[in-house]
Amino acid sequence: MPDNRGVADDVLSISNLVKTYRRAGKEVRAVDGVALAVAPGEFVAVQGPSGCGKTTLLLVAGGLLRPDGGRVAVGGDDPYALSAEGRARFRAARIGFVFQQFHLVPYLSVLDNVLVPSLAEARPGAAARARGLVERFGLGPRADHRPGELSTGERQRVALARALLNEPRLILADEPTGNLDRASAAVVLDHLAEFAKADGAVLLVTHDPWAAQRATRQVRMETGRLVS
Amino acid sequence: MTLWRLIAKEIAYRRLNFALSVVAVLVAVGCLVAELVLLRAHDLRAEGIAESKEARTRGMVGKLEEDYIKITLGLGYNVLVLSKDQDLGRFYAQGVAETTMPEAYVKRLAESRVITVQHLMPTLQERIEWPEKGKLPILLMGTRGEVPIAHRDAKKPLLQPVAKGTLVVGSLVGERLGLKKGDAATLRGQSFTVAEVRPPRGNEDDVTVWADLGEAQALLGRPGEINAILALSCFCAEATLDGMRKEIGTALDQKVQVLELAREAATRRAARARASALAEEVVQSEEAGRAEQRTERQGFAEWIVPLVIVGCTVWVGLMAFSNARDRRGEIGVLRALGVRGGQVLAVFLGRALLVGLAGAALGYALGLGVAAAWDARQGGGVGLAALVAPWVLAGTLVLAPLFSAIASFVPALVAAGQDPAEILQDQ
């Protein structure tokens, strides 16, 4: 179902998005004419079964996967109008990512993992901001530990802190609570909600109705289309 | 966070991969450095041995020269006795004495007690043109062979006399006039038979015609006269040339002058030159032997060292591929977070440079140490300090990281070119 609420100052605006995979001579339309806008302060959950195209939607929205049709705008700008290098800078400056598998760098400490986005976008005060985030997410005593020494909940909080380092307006979260227990998941969802309330925007994709209920708005996706 | 910090942390985390890569560079650099150091040690040792051998050879040659001098001194002098009135300037210019002296002088000299003279040969020489043979210029030499010395035992004569009625002709004269042994020849109206045509000697003998002294005196209109007495093998071991001059002068009433023929001096010079040439040959032969040995060793190095370097380069490349594969997920998330492909490339190449630097430093130390120990075992090692070559160290510190980076370039390029979306979807 198309979303016609998009306005110029939406943090994320997706219109008529199409993405097709071609594998072994077969075409699979993972995203089929999706339109979605996420305004500042919104926490939007895209819910749907596995394989419905949620992750593809998230990757396309994050400037990681070029769509076959339609348009994506983050803060009004189309990342696909940029070169690959320009798009990388764009992601570093404007988008925070949180993944189900955390994707922390195994040989870096908690603090260094939070600082990884500063490799792509070196901003003044990054180290102080990273230390602040580590404290804010209750990871102070673990600052020098490696991911292998953390619980899964702690790892996801590190990933969340990392996503916030460069102060993006948009967080894209792909099943961030998929590997967490309810308590840890609640902490993560609370932080996402808090980010949204502070004039940010969150697009969460999940198959978990419980996680989706924490969002301010929920949409359902089936076979590549938004259905509600 | 910087790329170097990321590289350092990763190296500390994946120590085994890094260590194996460093070992590859270490082996390559170690082989190269050891070979270069061994060649340098060979050169230094060869230089030292050559200097020492050259000094010893020069000493031996000096001794040899002294021996030659003594030997040739022992041979004595050859002297030429000329009339006191002979202008030496004209003699030197023309090569023939113009002024004559009585033939009786040679008899007096033979009968005197001159102890230094071994052989006496009176001659009458004059440059003439052979009128019957197209005025061919010749040196006519009348000789009576050797005059026996009264107070000495009979010796084998150095020069045989020319029989009366015969001529002995030099090779050029014989060739130009078509003369051969037994031919009849007329000289200044007198008939002769050619007794011998001398073989070429490359000197004035080739244009000389020898005749009996009496017949030569008749032909030249100088009966009873000679213009030179050749006194050969004058034994001067105890006497000086001046002493001999005085002795001959006294025997002939000071009416003659005595000249030393240069032949012995030339002999001494030739002997010295031969000795020097021999020394040079010995030194050059030694140097050639060592150069050949070096070439053999260098040839072996030129074959084995590149093989080791190529093998180790492939090894480093494979380790880099393994590292890139292990870090696929990390690269995917880094790229998703905005780290650019060039930065990922720099991470891998920076790591490769550190592999090269560490391998170069350790390989240099190992290669130097092994080569120095090997050299010391060869005996007469030149010492570690002499083998340290800063340019080799500098070269390895530059080239090893470069080779390591080249070997890691393709894996780094593959890593940098990976699609983050694909990686994230796979995981």
Outline the fold blueprint.
The complex is a heterodimer of chains A (228) and B (427).
Chain A: E1 12-23, E2 26-38, E3 43-47, H1 54-61, E4 69-74, H2 84-94, E5 95-99, H3 110-115, H4 117-120, H5 126-136, H6 152-164, E6 170-174, H7 182-197, E7 201-206, H8 209-212, E8 217-222, E9 225-226
Chain B: H1 3-13, H2 15-75, E1 77-83, H3 88-94, E2 101-102, H4 104-111, E3 119-130, E4 136-143, E5 166-169, H5 171-177, E6 184-187, E7 190-197, E8 208-212, H6 213-220, E9 225-226, E10 228-234, H7 241-251, E11 256-260, H8 263-326, H9 328-336, H10 341-377, H11 384-387, H12 390-416, H13 420-426
* General form of chain A: globular
Gross morphology of chain B is rod-shaped
N-to-C SSE series of chain A?
A: EEEHEHEHHHHEHEHEE
Oligomer: heterodimer
Strand order of the largest sheet of chain B: 6-7-5-8-4-3-10-1-11
Low-confidence stretches of chain A: 1-7
Number of strand elements of chain B? 11
How many helices of chain A?
8
The computed structural class of chain A is alpha/beta
* Fold-level CATH name of the domain at 12-105 and 168-226 in chain A: Rossmann fold
The first-level CATH class of the domain at 12-105 and 168-226 in chain A is given as Alpha Beta
How would you portray this structure in words?
The complex is a heterodimer of chains A (228) and B (427). Chain A is built from eight helices and nine strands. Chain A is an alpha/beta fold. The N terminus of chain A is likely disordered. The mean pLDDT of chain B is 84. Chain B is built from 13 helices and eleven strands. Chain B is 61% helix and 15% strand. In chain B, helix 1 crosses helix 10, helix 8 packs parallel to helix 12 and helix 10 packs antiparallel against helix 12. Chain B is rod-shaped. By secondary structure, chain B is of the alpha+beta class. Chains A and B meet through helix 1, helix 2 and helix 4 of A and helix 1, helix 9, helix 10 and helix 13 of B.
